[in-house]
Amino acid sequence: MARQPIFDQQQRVVAYELLYRSEGNTETSMFRDTAATSEVILNAYTSIVDGGAERRVPAFINLTYDIVVEGSIPELPRKQVVLELLEDAKVDDAFIEGVRNLVQEGYRIALDDFVYSPEYDPLLEMAQIVKVDVMDHTSEELPKLIQRLKPFKVTLLAEKIETHEKLEECIKLGFKLFQGHFLSRPKLITGKKISAGQMVLLQLMQALQNPNAKPEALEELIIRDPVLTYKLLRIVNSAAFSLVRKVESISEAVVLLGIPQVKKWATLIAMSTSTDKPEELTRTLLIRGRMAEQVAVAEKRANFGSYFMA
User: Fold this and answer.
1) What CATH code would you report for 2-184?
2) 273, 195 contact by CB (below 8 A)
3) Which positions fall inside the EAL domain (predicted)?
4) pLDDT in tens, 171-210
5) Residue 290 has what pLDDT?
6) Average pLDDT for residues 37-44, to the nearest whole number?
7) Which long-range contacts (CB under 8 A, 24 or more apart) does 156-161 make?
């Protein structure tokens, strides 16, 4: 994953765009597929939101057509994210309704690589930010586009700023936000990726289809994979939930998140999972965690479920 800062007119960093990058490439890999979206959301929520620069400024996260239409985005901190709609998403009734639902839930919307067409009017009425690729517009076209967008009262973001001259031109035209290689190139965020076991996730997804699923039964499935357990506990203990105490039990986390949210997060984890997990390490972690939990049960300790992560 990589990030690229977004600047205001005083060249202060006011946000970051989170970008999916594969094989260490920060320049050419494009963030387009649903699996990439899932991975960026998970990384942002379980890692980046917990600390670092992204905690102080909003993070722009790209959303695909499928995620918008299916409504499969889980709860994210409204003040810490801006949901960016990709320019190649099909603008149909289902997509517009999906965006409307996100806005009603309190999310801010940005339109990426915007080129005006009347079909975008419903989205412009809901969006707060419009990103314009200034390299795709001539100096004569930009003022016309800005004039056309004025009735919608959106904040304009100039992207692909490659020179100081282009930056000055965009400031004079009324752009408020800026992004591009002249200001800062995308920087790779390094770290070791941890993936959850596919079989456990499939079993969990099946169990979540049961409307009468009990938190205890779901816990039995989740704790079979320590990585999945770790991610869900990180999510419920993140800054977004502002809990007064740390949640250490999976069953309690399920109750706090709710079945629909657990289902959404499990779906995202399933889509972003990879096959590079060292099985022996996972097995060792699972045995240790389960042993600690069973010892707590034998000693009749309170909240024995929390000992799995001890």
Assistant:
1) 3.20.20.450
2) yes
3) 1-200
4) 999 999 999 999 988 887 665 555 556 667 767 777 777 7
5) 57
6) 61
7) 156/129, 156/130, 156/132, 157/6, 157/110, 157/129, 157/130, 157/131, 157/132, 158/132, 158/134, 159/113, 159/131, 159/132, 159/133, 159/134, 160/133, 160/134, 160/135, 160/136, 161/134
